[in-house]
Design goal:
Layout lengths: L3 E4 L8 H12 L4 E3 L6 E5 L3 H11 L8 E3 L14 H10 L4 E6 L14 E5 L4 H10 L3 E2 L14 H8 L5 E4 L10 E6 L2 E6 L5 H5 L5 E3 L29 E5 L2 H14 L2 E5 L1 H4 L7 E3 L6 H14 L7 E5 L7 H11 L4 E3 L2
Parallel strand pairs: 1-8, 2-8, 4-6, 5-9, 10-11, 12-15, 12-16, 13-14, 13-15
Antiparallel strand pairs: 2-3, 3-7, 4-7, 5-6, 9-10
Helix pairs in contact: 1-4, 9-10
The structure holds threonylcarbamoyladenylate (TXA) and magnesium ion (MG).
The site of magnesium ion (MG) has 3 residues, from loops.
Length: about 350
Protein backbone atom coordinates (compact mmCIF):
# COMPACT_ATOMS: atom_id res chain seq x y z
CA UNK A 1 0.00 0.00 0.00
CA UNK A 2 1.24 3.51 -0.77
CA UNK A 3 1.04 5.65 2.37
CA UNK A 4 0.27 9.33 1.86
CA UNK A 5 2.32 11.62 4.11
CA UNK A 6 0.66 14.90 5.14
CA UNK A 7 3.01 17.38 6.78
CA UNK A 8 1.63 20.00 9.16
CA UNK A 9 4.47 22.09 10.54
CA UNK A 10 2.48 24.29 12.92
CA UNK A 11 -0.46 22.93 14.90
CA UNK A 12 -1.71 26.50 15.34
CA UNK A 13 -1.98 26.84 11.58
CA UNK A 14 -3.69 23.65 10.50
CA UNK A 15 -4.24 23.18 6.77
CA UNK A 16 -7.98 22.37 6.66
CA UNK A 17 -7.86 20.72 3.25
CA UNK A 18 -5.24 18.22 4.47
CA UNK A 19 -7.42 17.52 7.51
CA UNK A 20 -10.47 17.04 5.23
CA UNK A 21 -8.54 14.52 3.08
CA UNK A 22 -7.40 12.60 6.14
CA UNK A 23 -10.93 12.60 7.61
CA UNK A 24 -12.28 11.27 4.29
CA UNK A 25 -9.90 8.29 4.54
CA UNK A 26 -11.16 7.56 8.08
CA UNK A 27 -14.82 7.86 7.04
CA UNK A 28 -14.16 5.34 4.24
CA UNK A 29 -12.81 2.79 6.71
CA UNK A 30 -9.08 3.53 6.22
CA UNK A 31 -6.37 4.23 8.79
CA UNK A 32 -4.57 7.52 9.48
CA UNK A 33 -1.74 8.03 11.99
CA UNK A 34 -1.89 11.46 13.64
CA UNK A 35 -0.03 13.48 16.28
CA UNK A 36 -1.34 14.05 19.79
CA UNK A 37 0.29 15.91 22.68
CA UNK A 38 1.37 12.57 24.22
CA UNK A 39 2.48 10.26 21.39
CA UNK A 40 1.25 9.57 17.84
CA UNK A 41 -1.95 7.55 17.45
CA UNK A 42 -2.94 5.07 14.73
CA UNK A 43 -6.54 6.07 14.04
CA UNK A 44 -9.61 4.40 12.60
CA UNK A 45 -13.38 5.03 12.91
CA UNK A 46 -14.21 3.92 16.48
CA UNK A 47 -17.67 2.69 15.47
CA UNK A 48 -16.36 0.45 12.68
CA UNK A 49 -15.30 -3.04 13.73
CA UNK A 50 -13.41 -3.59 10.47
CA UNK A 51 -11.29 -0.49 11.09
CA UNK A 52 -10.39 -1.94 14.52
CA UNK A 53 -9.34 -5.21 12.88
CA UNK A 54 -7.15 -3.25 10.43
CA UNK A 55 -5.52 -1.38 13.32
CA UNK A 56 -4.55 -4.63 15.06
CA UNK A 57 -3.21 -6.04 11.80
CA UNK A 58 -1.18 -2.92 10.92
CA UNK A 59 0.44 -2.81 14.37
CA UNK A 60 0.86 -6.57 14.69
CA UNK A 61 -0.94 -6.18 18.01
CA UNK A 62 -2.88 -8.89 19.88
CA UNK A 63 -6.59 -8.11 19.47
CA UNK A 64 -7.38 -8.58 23.18
CA UNK A 65 -5.52 -5.34 23.96
CA UNK A 66 -8.26 -2.67 23.78
CA UNK A 67 -8.03 0.68 21.99
CA UNK A 68 -8.56 4.21 23.35
CA UNK A 69 -11.31 6.23 21.64
CA UNK A 70 -10.52 9.91 20.98
CA UNK A 71 -13.21 12.58 21.14
CA UNK A 72 -13.17 16.29 20.30
CA UNK A 73 -15.33 17.42 23.24
CA UNK A 74 -15.54 15.74 26.70
CA UNK A 75 -19.36 15.73 26.42
CA UNK A 76 -19.14 13.47 23.36
CA UNK A 77 -18.29 10.65 25.78
CA UNK A 78 -22.10 10.38 26.23
CA UNK A 79 -22.39 8.92 22.73
CA UNK A 80 -20.13 6.00 23.52
CA UNK A 81 -20.07 5.47 27.30
CA UNK A 82 -21.97 5.87 30.57
CA UNK A 83 -20.48 8.89 32.33
CA UNK A 84 -20.71 10.05 35.95
CA UNK A 85 -20.21 13.12 38.12
CA UNK A 86 -16.60 12.10 38.72
CA UNK A 87 -16.02 11.84 34.95
CA UNK A 88 -17.10 15.47 34.54
CA UNK A 89 -14.92 16.60 37.45
CA UNK A 90 -11.95 14.99 35.71
CA UNK A 91 -13.00 16.45 32.37
CA UNK A 92 -13.26 19.97 33.83
CA UNK A 93 -9.81 19.69 35.34
CA UNK A 94 -7.84 17.85 32.68
CA UNK A 95 -9.62 17.78 29.30
CA UNK A 96 -8.63 18.42 26.64
CA UNK A 97 -5.32 16.90 27.73
CA UNK A 98 -3.31 13.77 28.49
CA UNK A 99 -5.91 11.85 30.53
CA UNK A 100 -7.80 8.68 29.53
CA UNK A 101 -10.82 7.56 31.55
CA UNK A 102 -12.22 4.02 31.52
CA UNK A 103 -16.03 4.03 31.54
CA UNK A 104 -18.80 1.41 31.01
CA UNK A 105 -19.32 1.25 27.24
CA UNK A 106 -22.45 1.75 25.15
CA UNK A 107 -23.36 -0.40 22.13
CA UNK A 108 -22.13 2.26 19.68
CA UNK A 109 -18.62 0.92 20.29
CA UNK A 110 -18.07 -2.55 18.83
CA UNK A 111 -16.51 -5.30 20.94
CA UNK A 112 -13.57 -5.40 18.49
CA UNK A 113 -12.48 -1.94 19.74
CA UNK A 114 -12.53 -2.90 23.43
CA UNK A 115 -11.04 -6.36 23.09
CA UNK A 116 -14.37 -7.78 24.24
CA UNK A 117 -14.46 -5.74 27.49
CA UNK A 118 -17.67 -4.02 28.58
CA UNK A 119 -15.74 -0.82 29.32
CA UNK A 120 -14.18 1.71 26.95
CA UNK A 121 -11.20 4.04 27.30
CA UNK A 122 -12.08 7.67 26.43
CA UNK A 123 -9.66 10.52 25.81
CA UNK A 124 -9.97 14.09 24.51
CA UNK A 125 -6.56 15.17 23.18
CA UNK A 126 -5.43 18.80 23.30
CA UNK A 127 -3.23 18.70 20.18
CA UNK A 128 -4.98 20.93 17.62
CA UNK A 129 -4.28 18.63 14.66
CA UNK A 130 -5.84 15.72 16.56
CA UNK A 131 -8.93 17.67 17.57
CA UNK A 132 -9.39 19.11 14.05
CA UNK A 133 -9.20 15.58 12.63
CA UNK A 134 -11.72 14.15 15.12
CA UNK A 135 -14.14 17.03 14.45
CA UNK A 136 -13.81 16.66 10.67
CA UNK A 137 -14.39 12.93 10.98
CA UNK A 138 -17.63 13.52 12.92
CA UNK A 139 -17.15 10.36 14.97
CA UNK A 140 -14.74 9.18 17.68
CA UNK A 141 -11.37 7.91 16.46
CA UNK A 142 -10.07 4.66 17.96
CA UNK A 143 -6.29 4.86 18.22
CA UNK A 144 -3.56 2.95 19.95
CA UNK A 145 -0.05 4.37 19.84
CA UNK A 146 1.18 4.33 16.22
CA UNK A 147 4.14 2.00 16.71
CA UNK A 148 4.61 -1.59 15.67
CA UNK A 149 3.69 -3.76 18.64
CA UNK A 150 6.65 -4.11 21.02
CA UNK A 151 8.55 -1.00 19.94
CA UNK A 152 8.39 2.27 21.88
CA UNK A 153 5.49 4.63 21.20
CA UNK A 154 6.32 7.10 18.42
CA UNK A 155 7.07 10.68 19.43
CA UNK A 156 7.83 12.05 15.96
CA UNK A 157 6.43 11.70 12.45
CA UNK A 158 9.70 10.02 11.49
CA UNK A 159 9.16 7.25 14.10
CA UNK A 160 5.70 6.57 12.64
CA UNK A 161 7.01 6.53 9.09
CA UNK A 162 9.74 4.04 10.13
CA UNK A 163 7.17 1.71 11.70
CA UNK A 164 4.06 2.01 9.53
CA UNK A 165 4.99 3.30 6.06
CA UNK A 166 3.33 1.01 3.51
CA UNK A 167 0.97 -0.51 6.11
CA UNK A 168 -1.70 2.26 6.40
CA UNK A 169 -3.40 4.82 4.14
CA UNK A 170 -1.90 8.03 5.58
CA UNK A 171 0.37 9.57 8.19
CA UNK A 172 0.03 13.17 9.42
CA UNK A 173 3.51 14.32 10.41
CA UNK A 174 3.13 17.06 13.03
CA UNK A 175 6.71 17.11 14.34
CA UNK A 176 7.85 16.17 17.85
CA UNK A 177 5.27 15.27 20.54
CA UNK A 178 5.02 17.83 23.37
CA UNK A 179 4.84 15.35 26.26
CA UNK A 180 6.41 12.21 24.83
CA UNK A 181 4.78 9.64 27.16
CA UNK A 182 1.32 8.15 26.71
CA UNK A 183 -1.68 9.52 28.61
CA UNK A 184 -2.47 8.81 32.25
CA UNK A 185 -5.17 6.11 32.41
CA UNK A 186 -7.68 6.00 35.26
CA UNK A 187 -10.64 3.74 35.89
CA UNK A 188 -13.63 5.14 37.78
CA UNK A 189 -14.97 2.72 40.39
CA UNK A 190 -17.78 4.38 42.35
CA UNK A 191 -16.14 7.38 44.03
CA UNK A 192 -12.65 5.89 43.66
CA UNK A 193 -10.06 6.31 40.90
CA UNK A 194 -7.68 3.50 40.04
CA UNK A 195 -4.52 4.72 38.31
CA UNK A 196 -3.75 2.09 35.68
CA UNK A 197 -1.03 3.89 33.72
CA UNK A 198 0.86 6.96 35.00
CA UNK A 199 1.44 9.87 32.63
CA UNK A 200 1.70 13.65 32.62
CA UNK A 201 -1.42 14.00 34.79
CA UNK A 202 0.26 12.88 38.01
CA UNK A 203 -1.22 11.01 40.99
CA UNK A 204 -0.93 14.25 43.01
CA UNK A 205 -2.94 16.15 40.38
CA UNK A 206 -5.64 13.45 40.47
CA UNK A 207 -5.75 13.70 44.28
CA UNK A 208 -6.78 17.35 43.94
CA UNK A 209 -9.98 16.15 42.18
CA UNK A 210 -10.68 12.92 44.02
CA UNK A 211 -9.43 12.07 47.49
CA UNK A 212 -9.55 8.35 46.81
CA UNK A 213 -6.85 7.47 44.26
CA UNK A 214 -5.42 3.97 44.26
CA UNK A 215 -2.28 3.24 42.27
CA UNK A 216 -2.56 -0.16 40.64
CA UNK A 217 0.32 -2.37 41.84
CA UNK A 218 1.07 -3.21 38.19
CA UNK A 219 2.32 0.39 37.68
CA UNK A 220 5.53 -0.41 39.54
CA UNK A 221 5.60 -4.19 39.84
CA UNK A 222 5.64 -7.08 37.40
CA UNK A 223 2.45 -9.10 37.06
CA UNK A 224 2.52 -12.37 38.93
CA UNK A 225 2.17 -15.50 36.84
CA UNK A 226 -1.48 -16.10 35.84
CA UNK A 227 -2.60 -12.74 37.29
CA UNK A 228 -5.28 -11.04 35.19
CA UNK A 229 -4.38 -7.38 34.60
CA UNK A 230 -7.02 -4.65 35.00
CA UNK A 231 -5.63 -3.04 31.88
CA UNK A 232 -4.77 -5.72 29.32
CA UNK A 233 -1.85 -3.65 27.95
CA UNK A 234 -0.02 -4.16 31.24
CA UNK A 235 0.81 -7.75 30.44
CA UNK A 236 2.79 -7.02 27.29
CA UNK A 237 6.51 -6.29 27.36
CA UNK A 238 6.70 -2.81 25.95
CA UNK A 239 9.22 -0.25 24.85
CA UNK A 240 12.05 -2.75 24.97
CA UNK A 241 15.35 -2.33 23.16
CA UNK A 242 16.75 -5.56 21.70
CA UNK A 243 19.88 -5.55 23.87
CA UNK A 244 19.55 -5.81 27.68
CA UNK A 245 18.73 -2.61 29.57
CA UNK A 246 19.82 -2.29 33.21
CA UNK A 247 18.57 0.50 35.50
CA UNK A 248 21.07 1.92 37.97
CA UNK A 249 19.99 2.88 41.47
CA UNK A 250 22.19 4.67 43.99
CA UNK A 251 23.77 7.99 45.00
CA UNK A 252 24.40 10.24 42.05
CA UNK A 253 28.23 10.30 42.31
CA UNK A 254 28.36 6.53 42.63
CA UNK A 255 26.14 5.99 39.60
CA UNK A 256 28.27 8.39 37.56
CA UNK A 257 31.44 6.56 38.67
CA UNK A 258 29.83 3.24 37.68
CA UNK A 259 29.06 4.64 34.22
CA UNK A 260 32.63 5.94 33.81
CA UNK A 261 34.07 2.54 34.78
CA UNK A 262 31.58 0.71 32.54
CA UNK A 263 32.81 2.76 29.56
CA UNK A 264 36.33 1.44 30.22
CA UNK A 265 35.35 -2.19 30.70
CA UNK A 266 32.35 -2.98 28.48
CA UNK A 267 30.72 -2.18 25.15
CA UNK A 268 27.87 -0.20 26.69
CA UNK A 269 25.38 2.50 25.73
CA UNK A 270 24.54 5.04 28.43
CA UNK A 271 21.32 7.03 28.80
CA UNK A 272 22.67 9.89 30.89
CA UNK A 273 21.61 13.29 32.21
CA UNK A 274 22.90 16.32 30.30
CA UNK A 275 25.13 17.32 33.24
CA UNK A 276 26.87 13.94 33.18
CA UNK A 277 27.67 13.94 29.48
CA UNK A 278 30.83 16.04 29.75
CA UNK A 279 32.16 13.78 32.54
CA UNK A 280 31.78 10.70 30.34
CA UNK A 281 33.59 9.64 27.17
CA UNK A 282 31.71 11.10 24.26
CA UNK A 283 30.83 7.76 22.71
CA UNK A 284 27.66 5.65 22.81
CA UNK A 285 25.88 8.11 25.07
CA UNK A 286 22.35 9.45 24.67
CA UNK A 287 21.49 12.59 26.61
CA UNK A 288 17.97 12.46 28.08
CA UNK A 289 17.68 15.97 29.57
CA UNK A 290 18.76 17.65 32.80
CA UNK A 291 18.61 15.65 36.07
CA UNK A 292 15.82 17.78 37.57
CA UNK A 293 13.91 18.35 34.32
CA UNK A 294 11.53 15.40 34.24
CA UNK A 295 9.43 16.92 31.42
CA UNK A 296 12.39 16.95 29.07
CA UNK A 297 13.31 13.40 30.11
CA UNK A 298 9.74 12.37 29.24
CA UNK A 299 10.07 14.03 25.83
CA UNK A 300 13.38 12.24 25.10
CA UNK A 301 12.77 8.78 26.56
CA UNK A 302 11.09 6.87 23.72
CA UNK A 303 13.37 8.33 21.09
CA UNK A 304 16.35 7.31 23.26
CA UNK A 305 14.99 3.76 23.60
CA UNK A 306 14.49 3.57 19.82
CA UNK A 307 18.13 4.55 19.20
CA UNK A 308 19.73 2.68 22.09
CA UNK A 309 20.28 -0.41 19.91
CA UNK A 310 22.11 1.55 17.19
CA UNK A 311 25.62 1.55 18.66
CA UNK A 312 26.54 -2.15 18.54
CA UNK A 313 26.80 -2.32 22.36
CA UNK A 314 26.25 -5.39 24.53
CA UNK A 315 24.32 -3.61 27.28
CA UNK A 316 22.45 -0.36 27.98
CA UNK A 317 22.56 1.47 31.33
CA UNK A 318 20.07 4.13 32.43
CA UNK A 319 19.08 5.80 35.70
CA UNK A 320 16.24 4.39 37.78
CA UNK A 321 13.78 7.33 38.06
CA UNK A 322 12.19 8.32 41.37
CA UNK A 323 8.52 7.56 41.97
CA UNK A 324 7.53 11.19 42.54
CA UNK A 325 5.40 13.31 40.21
CA UNK A 326 6.16 12.67 36.53
CA UNK A 327 8.95 10.35 37.77
CA UNK A 328 6.34 7.61 38.28
CA UNK A 329 5.52 7.62 34.54
CA UNK A 330 9.21 7.49 33.60
CA UNK A 331 9.75 4.70 36.14
CA UNK A 332 6.80 2.70 34.79
CA UNK A 333 8.06 2.83 31.16
CA UNK A 334 11.71 2.19 32.03
CA UNK A 335 11.14 -0.64 34.50
CA UNK A 336 9.20 -2.54 31.82
CA UNK A 337 11.74 -1.78 29.09
CA UNK A 338 14.36 -3.20 31.47
CA UNK A 339 12.21 -6.25 32.31
CA UNK A 340 12.60 -5.13 35.97
CA UNK A 341 16.40 -5.40 35.95
CA UNK A 342 17.75 -2.93 38.54
CA UNK A 343 21.37 -2.80 39.73
CA UNK A 344 22.11 -1.15 43.05
CA UNK A 345 25.38 0.75 42.84
CA UNK A 346 27.38 1.38 46.04
O1 LIG B 1 -1.55 8.91 25.01
C1 LIG B 1 -2.19 7.91 24.67
O2 LIG B 1 -2.98 7.34 25.44
C2 LIG B 1 -1.95 7.36 23.26
C3 LIG B 1 -2.47 8.41 22.28
C4 LIG B 1 -2.43 7.91 20.86
O3 LIG B 1 -3.76 8.80 22.63
N1 LIG B 1 -2.60 6.10 23.08
C5 LIG B 1 -2.14 4.96 23.65
O4 LIG B 1 -2.85 3.82 23.29
O5 LIG B 1 -1.18 4.90 24.38
P1 LIG B 1 -2.36 2.34 23.55
O6 LIG B 1 -3.33 1.49 22.85
O7 LIG B 1 -0.96 2.19 23.13
O8 LIG B 1 -2.53 2.12 25.08
C6 LIG B 1 -3.81 2.03 25.61
C7 LIG B 1 -3.82 1.30 26.91
C8 LIG B 1 -3.52 -0.17 26.78
O9 LIG B 1 -2.61 -0.54 27.81
C9 LIG B 1 -4.87 -0.81 27.00
O10 LIG B 1 -4.78 -2.08 27.58
C10 LIG B 1 -5.55 0.19 27.92
O11 LIG B 1 -5.13 1.43 27.44
N2 LIG B 1 -7.01 0.13 27.77
C11 LIG B 1 -7.76 0.46 26.71
N3 LIG B 1 -9.07 0.23 26.93
C12 LIG B 1 -9.16 -0.24 28.20
C13 LIG B 1 -10.24 -0.68 29.02
N4 LIG B 1 -11.49 -0.68 28.58
N5 LIG B 1 -9.95 -1.08 30.27
C14 LIG B 1 -8.67 -1.08 30.74
N6 LIG B 1 -7.61 -0.69 30.00
C15 LIG B 1 -7.85 -0.29 28.74
MG1 LIG C 1 0.89 1.52 22.92
Amino acid sequence: MKTQIFKIIDENNVNQSLIASAAEILKNGGLVAFPTETVYGLGGDATDKNAAKKIYAAKGRPSDNPLIIHIADPKDAELYAFTSELYYKLADAFMPGPLTVILPKKDTIPAEVTGGLDSVAVRCPSNKIASALISACGVAIAAPSANLSGSPSPTSGEHVINDLNGRIEAIIDGGISDIGLESTIVKIEGDKLILLRPGAITADALLCICENVEISPAVTEGLKKDERPLSPGMKYRHYAPKIPLVLLEGEKDKVLFFMQEAQKKEKCTLLCYDEEAELLKNENIIKIGKREDLASQARCLFSALRHADDFGSDIIYAHLPSLDGLGLALYNRLIRAAAHTVKHVD
